[in-house]
Amino acid sequence: MAVKTKTKAVVPQKPLRKQIYAYRWVYLLGIPGLLIMLFMNYLPMRGLLMAFQNYNPHLGILGSEWVGLEHFQKLFQDSRFYTMLRNTLVISALSLVTFPAPIFLALLLNELRSKFMKKFVQTAVYLPHFLSWAIVASLTFFLLSTEQGLINKIATAMGNEPTAYLFSTAWIYPIIVIQSLWKSVGWNSIVYLAAISGIDQSLYEAAKMDGANRFQCMMKITLPSIMPTVVVMLILKMGSIVSVDFEQVFLMNNAMVRSHLEVFETYIYNNSIATGSTQYSYTTAIGMFKSVVNTGLVVLTNWITRRKGYDGVL
């Protein structure tokens, strides 16, 4: 007995020219974004050529003398290079330690059942994001300064000696971490709250029917469901591992803690803008070094996450 099989009709693919014409209005809408990306992101990258030149503003990029890797050799031979690299990596490593904080905050906010309390907490933790680092540094001085700081006044009233927190190398890194955490944890949790809101509610209903409590639902449903978002945010975080917030470090810097807070950003400022120097090529080489390392870390982290079964960003 012959068995009839259904054959799927092959739809001929349209030529590329006709496909573009069919979606011409969509491409037209995308042109402004492409132009902005071209002029704001790609054309300025020609300035990276200055890292391989003795750049002279009067001669321009094409007319300046080419020196190859001379500025990179100067950077690696600088006695302060490894100090700056160490300080940058320490501050970035401490920020990675606090990376799970927005995740935990989003999980806790998701478990709040009172709408009023949830909105109040969200407003309270989002507000610091909109404060400038100058205000954050002023609040830190108000709390921790030796003579006028609120904490030292309380300590003195209790019979203890005041502590010079802002001038102590033992305290400066914890202060930097607490500042960053207070300022960014609420804002960064928005991404995870958005991911949580997209979870299928039927999963929770099925888990509750099987006897799961709220903590088990959070650990077995919520956290695994937002893990792809966590992975993407981690990859993006690795893209700034050799960069720190210039304003924060610059405002918290002083002669007593400079050995722990001298990073690439402050070094560029102190040796170019602050002194009126024209080391355009050298500072460009420093920035290019940071960009190359950050890009390499993004690619490496993306490769590791893909090996673990996640999509990644590349």
TrEMBL record:
Membrane association type: Multi-pass membrane protein
GO cellular component, one term: plasma membrane
Membrane-spanning residues: 21-43, 89-112, 124-144, 164-182, 221-242, 280-300
Annotated keywords: Membrane, Transmembrane, Transmembrane helix, Transport
UniProt domain ABC transmembrane type-1: residue ranges: 84-301
Membrane listed as a keyword: yes
SUPFAM superfamilies the UniProt entry points to: MetI-like
InterPro entries for the chain: MetI-like (IPR000515), MetI-like_sf (IPR035906)
Location(s), subcellular: Cell membrane; Membrane
Protein family per UniProt: Belongs to the binding-protein-dependent transport system permease family.
UniProt name for this protein: Sugar ABC transporter permease
Originating species: Candidatus Limivivens intestinipullorum
